[in-house]
Amino acid sequence: MSGASIRAEVDAALREVGRETGNGELVLTFTLPLPEPDTPWEVPSTDTPETIQAVAYNRSLSLGMIDGALIQAGDKLWLVSALDVDGVAYGEPQVTWRVSDGTRSYAIMMVKATSPAGVGLMYLVQGRA
Q1: Residue 45: pLDDT above 80?
Q2: What is the pLDDT of residue 116?
Q3: Is residue 29 part of a domain?
Q4: In a domain, 41, yes or no
Q5: How far apart are CA 42 and CA 35, in angstroms?
Q6: How many domains are contained in the chain?
Q7: SS3 assignment, position 63
């Protein structure tokens, strides 16, 4: 089984877990930052930022996980597919990106990739409002 087919299986499992739990598929939207100007006197870009949508599973945080520093009350933790909603692989989310669950926008505090043999299967993403 190739890495791409395993990645597709993980994507299908994340889609299914949303349906099986009765919550439906959760689609997160990642917003990439606009590039900074090369020099301070250049006008910053007013283009629309690039977005990526991917299926995710909202992982609940237990009280024991909240330490007040790395993980705070109100933080969100998601398992996110390495494929976007169209089935295309995208790069690992970065802490400079923003993520939205459709109701709130969050800063990305941490990303942990599951990528055996260098093939991204899914990402554990921590968001903070």
Answers
A1: no
A2: 86
A3: yes
A4: no
A5: 12
A6: 1
A7: helix
Instruction: Dump pLDDT digits (tens) for 13-43.
Output: 999 987 887 677 899 999 999 887 788 787 7
Q: Residue 17 domain-assigned?
A: yes
- Beta strands 26-31 and 122-128 are unpaired
Domain ranges, residue 54: 3-33+48-128
Nearest in space to 30 (alpha carbons), one of 11, 51, 49? 51
CATH number at residue 93: 2.40.10
54-66 pLDDT per residue, tens: 999 988 777 778 8
Helices (H), ranges, the chain: 3-20
39 lies in a domain?
Answer: no
Residue 13 tokens, joined: 């499992």
Q: How far apart are CA 14 and CA 41, in angstroms?
A: 46
